[in-house]
From TrEMBL:
Pfam families: FGase. Keywords: Hydrolase. This is N-formylglutamate amidohydrolase. It comes from Bordetella genomosp. 5. InterPro entries: N-FG_amidohydro. Gene3D superfamilies: Zn-dependent exopeptidases. One of its GO terms (molecular function) is hydrolase activity.
């Protein structure tokens, strides 16, 4: 099967212009909203089913950040092809036609079939009717996973160098009800927002508490580190002792779209406006922390 190199990411940011200043020590990324499906993917399920794995509309919902001077990094490749929010060692050996030659991590997500390369969708539907080669998986890591992580690291380093500290929001969505093979709590009815900082390991708790209070004041139901604590990207980049704070934000899809058709609902604009206002508040808040 020919291996086609996909575009790894898109950077919507004032930083597209080399001399543009950063307005605040704030960086956003959306690792699961990519919709460019590479020709070498060859899944066994239809396009409609594949799209259920996406964080549909998340990059657009946060998109006003760019106009406010805040960089927004988004994956171009789809989550079902390779998951940027998993560790590179989270290899599902059941998918491969031979043993993986390097170290692997048998994480809970791998056991659910949701490792670096997904084995199944949230409802348990197998993604492939074939085994993947080691070369295929290595290609996806080199062409997609590594460039995405490297670009996010560059953005965070630039903000940290400019301000001495940086705050990072890892942007996600979640279904209104957890799928049978999505988490270890299938059937769980999700709140409006879940904020995750791995129980304070990836951020000063003040960051999540500011966001939680802001959202609750506008009537949203918000939980903290339950049921989602944050996964690879906040783990990799959140080092609060060094002034690097990473927070995962999960948004319930029922707030903004039809979960079957994937089309925006009548509440879409309201939520997008709230996220714009939250970004403005975070620009002010993060700048105040470095004053």
């Amino acid at each position: 099967m020919p291996i086609i190199k996909p575009l790894s990411y898109r950077l919507d940011s004032p930083q597209n212009y080399p001399d543009a200043p950063l307005c605040a020590p704030l960086v956003l990324d959306s690792p699961h909203s990519g919709t460019t499906y590479p020709p070498d993917f060859a899944p066994a399920v239809g396009f409609g089913a594949l799209r259920t794995a996406e964080d549909t509309w998340v990059d657009d919902l946060w998109g006003d950040a760019v106009d406010l001077g805040v960089p927004l990094l988004g994956a171009s490749f789809p989550r079902a092809y390779i998951d940027a929010n998993r560790g590179a060692e989270e290899i599902d050996q059941l998918l491969l036609d031979e043993a993986w030659p390097d170290a692997i991590s048998e994480s809970p997500k791998v056991r659910l079939g949701k490792g670096l390369i997904w084995r199944m969708l949230d409802d348990g539907t197998p993604l492939y009717d074939r085994k993947l080669s080691v070369a295929e998986v290595r290609h996806r890591i080199e062409a997609c996973w590594k460039p995405y992580h490297a670009q996010l690291g560059t953005l965070l380093d630039k903000a940290h160098a400019r301000f001495g500290k940086v705050w990072h929001i890892n942007c996600h969505s979640m279904p209104s009800v957890a799928g049978a093979y999505a988490t270890d709590k299938p059937g769980l009815v999700h709140p409006d927002f879940v904020l995750g900082d791995r129980d304070g390991a990836t951020s000063d708790p003040a960051f999540r508490e500011f966001v939680a209070a802001w959202l609750r004041e506008r009537g949203y139901n918000v939980t903290v580190n339950d049921p989602y604590k944050g996964v690879e990207l906040v783990r990799a980049f959140g080092r609060p002792a060094e002034g690097r704070h990473s927070l995962q934000i999960e948004i319930n899809r029922k707030l903004y779209m039809d979960e079957v058709s994937l089309q925006p609902s009548e509440n879409y604009v309201r939520l997008k406006n709230h996220l714009r206002e939250l970004t403005i508040a975070l620009v002010d808040w993060t700048r105040a922390q470095t004053a």
